[in-house]
UniProtKB/TrEMBL annotation:
GO process terms (BP): ATP synthesis coupled electron transport; electron transport coupled proton transport
Cellular component aspect of the GO annotation: mitochondrial membrane
Membrane-traversing stretches: 12-30, 42-61, 68-91, 97-118, 139-157, 177-197, 218-238
Alphabetized Pfam families for the sequence: Proton_antipo_M (PF00361)
Protein name, as recorded: NADH-ubiquinone oxidoreductase chain 4
Length: 239
C-alpha cells in the first residue's frame, strides 16, 4: 500500500509521509522489537527485508512513472532499516537512525523535485521530462545532489547509515552481504538512470516553454540540501 499512498497523495502528503511518518514507523519498530526474539524468527524476517530491497530496486529499473520510481526507492531503503532494527545491537540501531534521517531528507527532496517537473510538463512519465537541464539548469545541481545522496555516494550521511547496517548484517550472518551489495548496486543504477533520463537529451515540444525555477522552489531545495551537507560534515549533530 505504501507506493500507492506515495503516488496518489498530493506533494505535501508525499513529502510528510516520506520524511516524518515512515520515521515514526521505524522508531516504533525500534521501541517495540523485543530484545529476546528468537533466531528462528529473525532469519526469515531479515531475509524478507533484504529481498524486498532487491525487488523494489528491480521494480524501479522498469518504472516509467517518476513519482512511482521514487516511492519504490523509498520502500527499498526502509527495508534496510527494518532488517537493522531486528538485530537489536547498538551499532545496528545507530545505523538505522542515521539512515532514517538521511532517507527522510533525500526522499522528500526527490518528491519535491518530481513535483516541480510535473507542474511544468503535466505528466509524470520519464520520457516526457527529458532535457530539463536546458530549461532549468540551476535545478540540475539539486537533481544531482538528490540522486547521488540516494545512491549513497561517499562521504554522504546516507553511506554512513548503509555501511553501518551492512556491517552489522554481515557480522550477524555473512550471507547477507550478497543481498545488501546487490541492493546497493541496483540502487546506484536506477538513481543514475533517473538523473540521466530527466536531465539529458532534447526537450520535447511540450516542454520547450518551461519556465525556470522560482525563488520559493530554490529555497525548498536549499532547506533539504543544507541539512544533508551539515550532517555529512558533522554527524554528531544527530546525537
Amino acid at each position: 500500500w505504501l507506493p500507492k499512498a506515495h503516488v496518489e497523495a498530493p506533494i505535501a502528503g508525499s513529502m510528510v509521509l516520506a520524511a516524518v511518518l515512515l520515521k515514526l514507523g521505524g522508531y516504533g519498530i525500534i521501541r517495540m522489537t523485543p530484545t529476546n526474539i528468537s533466531t528462528a524468527l529473525i532469519y526469515p524476517m531479515i531475509a524478507m527485508a533484504t529481498w524486498g530491497v532487491i525487488m523494489t530496486g528491480l521494480t524501479c529499473l522498469r518504472k516509467t512513472d517518476l513519482k512511482a520510481l521514487i516511492a519504490y526507492s523509498s520502500v527499498g531503503h526502509m527495508g534496510l532499516v527494518a532488517s537493522a532494527t531486528l538485530i537489536q545491537t547498538p551499532w545496528s540501531t545507530s545505523g538505522a537512525i542515521i539512515l532514517m534521517i538521511a532517507h527522510g531528507l533525500t526522499s522528500s527532496m526527490l518528491f519535491c523535485l518530481a513535483n516541480m517537473l510535473y507542474e511544468r510538463t503535466n505528466t509524470r512519465m520519464l520520457i516526457a521530462m527529458r532535457g530539463m537541464h536546458k530549461a532549468m539548469p540551476l535545478m540540475t545541481s539539486y537533481w544531482l545532489i538528490a540522486s547521488l545522496t540516494n545512491l549513497a555516494l561517499p562521504p554522504t550521511i546516507n553511506l554512513i547509515g548503509e555501511i553501518q547496517i551492512m556491517a552489522t548484517l554481515f557480522n550477524w550472518s555473512p550471507l547477507t552481504i550478497m543481498m545488501t551489495a546487490m541492493g546497493a548496486t541496483i540502487t546506484a543504477i536506477y538513481s543514475l538512470q533517473m538523473f540521466m533520463t530527466t536531465q539529458q537529451g532534447h526537450l520535447t515540444k511540450d516542454s520547450k516553454e518551461t519556465y525556470p525555477a522560482q525563488t520559493r522552489e530554490l529555497l525548498i531545495m536549499l532547506l533539504h540540501a543544507l541539512p544533508i551537507l551539515l550532517l555529512t560534515l558533522n554527524l554528531e549533530l544527530i546525537y
